[in-house]
């Protein structure tokens, strides 16, 4: 696609997202979602005026992760938001991780712009689906049974990663071998007042979601945890073409 049409591309993504998620239970939702996925698959880092970032010299000299104590491990660039969806860019420093978390009642789409992401996806299982009680290590946090469905690597050449209210709704995102960025659409946006708050979890049995798991899919126990002390998300201005809705 010619570079002088790039502004229209991100504008068309936003317009299609508005159409798609205006009626997420309507008869045309599947067709609209497919069209949105096709548009999102076309987006590249340069379309949003982004370039891959390396660690700064000052950060690298600290001796820890290149971002430790200097900048947030993850930053967010807000693009637009309506009642039905939000869209923005997440930037992960080398070695950064967005811990295992959920998206209650939400659809989502994630398109890698640069770098490589390892994404572990899980589904919550219905209450009473567990054949055995949670392990003693659960502690006092709320537990739930989940299906660890997949763990895949995504690059700019990969199609978007999709989640729905019932499929792949919990996921962990790790930057692999360098910094990474992805365009993110959530529908509807997080809203604690309407029951759409973000909850964090950790695996109670088996290796962490970022380690090499046994054969998937498999059932696992999760325990709800506070946000990790070494994870926080900063904000940065969005440098790309303006989106108007």
From TrEMBL:
Say if the entry is tagged with keyword Oxidoreductase: yes
* InterPro entries in alphabetical order: PCO/ADO, RmlC-like_jellyroll, RmlC_Cupin_sf
State any GO CC term: mitochondrion
Presence of the UniProt keyword Amino-acid biosynthesis in the record: no
Q: From which residue to which does the signal peptide run?
A: none
Keywords, alphabetical:
Dioxygenase, Iron, Metal-binding, Oxidoreductase
Query: From the UniProt record, which GO molecular function terms apply?
Result: metal ion binding; oxidoreductase activity, acting on single donors with incorporation of molecular oxygen, incorporation of two atoms of oxygen
What domain of life?
Eukaryota
Q: Which PANTHER family match?
A: 2-AMINOETHANETHIOL DIOXYGENASE (PTHR22966:SF61)
Task: State the name under which the record lists this protein.
Answer: AEDO dioxygenase
Source taxonomy? Eukaryota, Metazoa, Chordata, Craniata, Vertebrata
């Amino acid at each position: 696609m010619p570079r002088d049409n790039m502004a229209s591309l991100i504008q068309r993504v936003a317009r299609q997202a508005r159409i798609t998620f205006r009626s997420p239970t309507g008869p045309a939702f599947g067709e609209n979602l497919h069209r949105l996925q096709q548009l999102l698959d076309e987006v590249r880092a340069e379309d949003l005026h982004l370039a891959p970032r390396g660690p700064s010299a000052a950060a690298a000299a600290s001796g820890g992760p290149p971002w430790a104590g200097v900048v947030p491990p993850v930053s967010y660039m807000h693009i637009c938001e309506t009642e039905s969806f939000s869209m923005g860019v997440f930037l992960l420093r080398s070695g950064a991780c967005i811990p295992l978390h959920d998206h209650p009642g939400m659809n989502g789409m994630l398109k890698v712009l640069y770098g490589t992401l390892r994404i572990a996806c899980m589904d919550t299982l219905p209450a009473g689906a567990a054949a055995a009680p949670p392990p003693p290590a659960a502690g006092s946090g709320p537990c739930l049974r989940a299906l660890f469905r997949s763990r895949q690597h995504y690059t700019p050449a990969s199609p978007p990663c999709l989640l729905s209210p019932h499929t792949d709704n919990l996921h962990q995102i790790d930057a692999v071998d360098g910094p990474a960025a992805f365009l993110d659409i959530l529908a509807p946006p997080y809203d604690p007042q309407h029951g759409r708050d973000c909850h964090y979890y950790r695996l109670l049995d088996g290796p962490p979601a970022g380690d090499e798991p046994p054969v998937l899919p498999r059932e696992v126990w999760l325990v709800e945890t506070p946000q990790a002390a070494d994870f926080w998300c900063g904000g940065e201005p969005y440098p790309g073409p303006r989106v108007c809705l």
